[in-house]
Amino acid sequence: GNSVTQMEGPVTLSEEAFLTINCTYTATGYPSLFWYVQYPGEGLQLLLKATKADDKGSNKGFEATYRKETTSFHLEKGSVQVSDSAVYFCALSDSTGAQKLVFGQGTRLTINP
Amino acid sequence: SQTIHQWPATLVQPVGSPLSLECTVEGTSNPNLYWYRQAAGRGLQLLFYSVGIGQISSEVPQNLSASRPQDRQFILSSKKLLLSDSGFYLCAWGAGENTGELFFGEGSRLTVL
């Protein structure tokens, strides 16, 4: 079945550091790929997405590229801020009508000033 | 615009007691609806999804059940809670289009003692 594997956390960085959170997937067909973010005490919100190979999703300085050849969708940001502290989830959507999302285990990111 | 609400936000229940978590969506019709659980230190697990009134699909065998009595209402229930039911429950809706994007509620934290 479909699955998503994320870089294990927690990850702690200093402000303005470069961020990479790795994500690889296993899927049949051509899934859409997502990064969701969960700020403390809140539900999840979509950060960025890519719907086909070589697409780059970007938002709030974050970006990720859909790499079909390596089945990866790594999240990157050039200079993180304290406000980026959150849990980040990589996810894929199957191509069925039910649009179910399969999530990775999440990576907790803490940015220190 | 569309909104999603779930309640209660926090719940502490004894083992063996019943459970009812409610979720409602506004501003859209015939959404796909989902219940996810986020256990401590783990990722999100899809519990149930629904593509229409009265249509419920269960993803994992468990002590919980779901119902969709109205188009924009989704209820998660249990007759007798177990300790292992503790977690953070998230309701989500999707438009059913092939974008895969889901919109999440604020979450309900359940502690079973």
Give the arrangement of secondary structure elements.
The complex is a heterodimer of chains A (113) and B (113).
Chain A lengths: L2 E4 L4 E4 L4 E3 L1 E4 L5 E7 L5 E7 L5 E4 L2 E4 L9 E3 L8 E8 L7 E3 L3 E6 L1
Parallel strand pairs in A: 2-12
Antiparallel strand pairs in A: 1-4, 3-9, 5-6, 5-10, 7-8, 8-9, 10-11, 10-12
Chain B lengths: L2 E5 L2 E4 L5 E8 L5 E7 L5 E9 L2 E4 L6 E6 L2 E6 L8 E8 L7 E3 L3 E5 L1
Parallel strand pairs in B: 2-11
Antiparallel strand pairs in B: 1-3, 3-8, 4-5, 4-9, 5-6, 7-8, 9-10, 9-11
Keywords, separated by commas or semicolons:
heterodimer, A: 113 residues, mainly beta, six-stranded mixed sheet, four-stranded antiparallel sheet, 0% helix, B: 113 residues, seven-stranded mixed sheet, 58% strand
Please count the beta strands of chain A (DSSP E, at least 2 residues each): 12
N/C terminus separation of chain B: 39 Å
Rg of chain A is 14 Å
The outline of chain B comes out as globular
Contiguous uncertain segments of 5+ residues of chain B: none
Instruction: Note poorly predicted spans of chain A.
Output: none
User: What do the pLDDT scores of chain A average to?
Assistant: 92
Q: In percent, how helical is the residue content of chain B?
A: under 10%
Summarize the structure.
The complex is a heterodimer of chains A (113) and B (113). Chain A has no helices and 12 strands. By secondary structure, chain A is an all-beta fold.
Please describe what this structure looks like.
The complex is a heterodimer of chains A (113) and B (113). Chain A has 113 residues and is mainly β. Chain A is built from no helices and 12 strands. In chain A, strands 2, 5, 6, 10, 11 and 12 form a 6-stranded mixed sheet that branches. Chain A is globular and about 45 Å long. The mean pLDDT of chain A is 92. Chain B is mainly beta. In chain B, 0% of the residues lie in helices and 58% in strands. Chain B contains no helices and 11 strands. Chain B has strands at 3-7, 10-13, 19-26, 32-38, 44-52, 55-58, 65-70, 73-78, 87-94, 102-104, 108-112. In chain B, the strands form 2 sheets. In chain B, strands 2, 4, 5, 6, 9, 10 and 11 form a 7-stranded mixed sheet that branches. In chain B, strand 7 and strand 8 (73-78) form a beta hairpin. Chain A binds chain B through residues 6, 31-32, 34, 36, 42-46, 49, 51, 89, 92-93, 95, 97-106, and chain B through 32, 34, 36, 42-44, 46, 49, 51, 57, 59, 90, 92, 94, 96-107.
